[in-house]
Write a structure and sequence with these properties.
Elements: H1 14-32, H2 46-76, H3 82-97, H4 113-121, H5 126-129, H6 131-134, E1 137-142, E2 149-152, H7 155-168, E3 181-186, H8 200-207
Parallel strand pairs: 1-3
Antiparallel strand pairs: 2-3
Length: 232
């Protein structure tokens, strides 16, 4: 069995990586469900709930767009897809970092993923708010597996991304000039609910950072092998 290791530069702070694994898994689980943090039965906020719904729809769409373009590049050597793939990667990075104001499709949506996560779990996803950390990664979405990976980016790969972004949206060069790694984020289809995969109840508990007894969990690994793990 092939054993995948993190690049040397990411081994210095394993707790940071564990946090990223957990938050990413919970965001994907949130996107798989109809669950809305701001439609909580005790403290509903319909205005924010509607923004959360739009945020979730965009989350799903932009990850699918990036995965589709990347697949065409990697499988068919379709070079024409590179501008779309690289632009989508930057948009995902902005979305995770809470920079809605830099995403045209989210005009009028002021609610950020960070606020949704805080409402769901009572915690802040500090890892994705950390610009120093996030600027290290170029993101590619993979949909055919539940485990992602990360590797060093080569100079030719980085230079190509920079050149493409310079030609299509120069103002976003700041999101690629500091890239050191390519992170393949696992965003598979939601499995059919069941005891051998994951139940809907367990999925909703994970979204809210709860264990099977509805108690806060410190575990960074999702409760099922059929839920995504990335940066691993």
């Amino acid at each position: 069995m092939e054993i995948k290791h993190l690049p040397d530069g990411l081994n210095e702070n394993p707790q940071l990586i564990k946090e990223a694994v957990k938050v990413w898994s919970q965001f994907v689980a949130w996107s798989w469900t109809e669950f809305l943090a701001f439609r909580d039965k005790d403290t509903p906020d319909e205005v924010k709930a509607e923004q959360e719904r739009k945020l979730k729809e965009f989350f799903i769409k932009i990850h699918q767009d990036q995965a589709r373009s990347s697949y065409a590049i990697n499988s068919y050597e379709d070079q024409d897809q590179k501008p779309d793939a690289y632009a989508a990667s930057i948009t995902i990075k902005k979305l995770l970092m809470g920079k809605n104001n830099e995403i045209n499709e989210l005009t009028g949506v002021t609610l950020t993923l960070q606020e949704v996560y805080n409402k769901l779990t009572g915690q802040n996803p500090d890892i994705f708010s950390d610009e120093t950390f996030m600027q290290q990664f170029h993101l590619e979405i993979v949909t055919d597996r539940f485990s992602g990976e990360v590797r060093d980016i080569s100079e030719p790969e980085k230079n190509e991304i920079i050149e493409v972004i310079r030609n299509i949206q120069k103002e976003d060069l700041k999101y690629v000039e500091g890239v050191e790694y390519i992170s393949y984020l696992a965003y598979p289809p939601c499995p059919i609910f069941g005891k051998t995969t994951v139940t809907e109840t367990r999925l909703n508990q994970w979204i809210q950072n709860l264990d099977q007894n509805d108690q806060p969990t410190a575990d960074y690994l999702p409760p099922s092998a059929y839920m995504p793990i990335s940066l691993s």
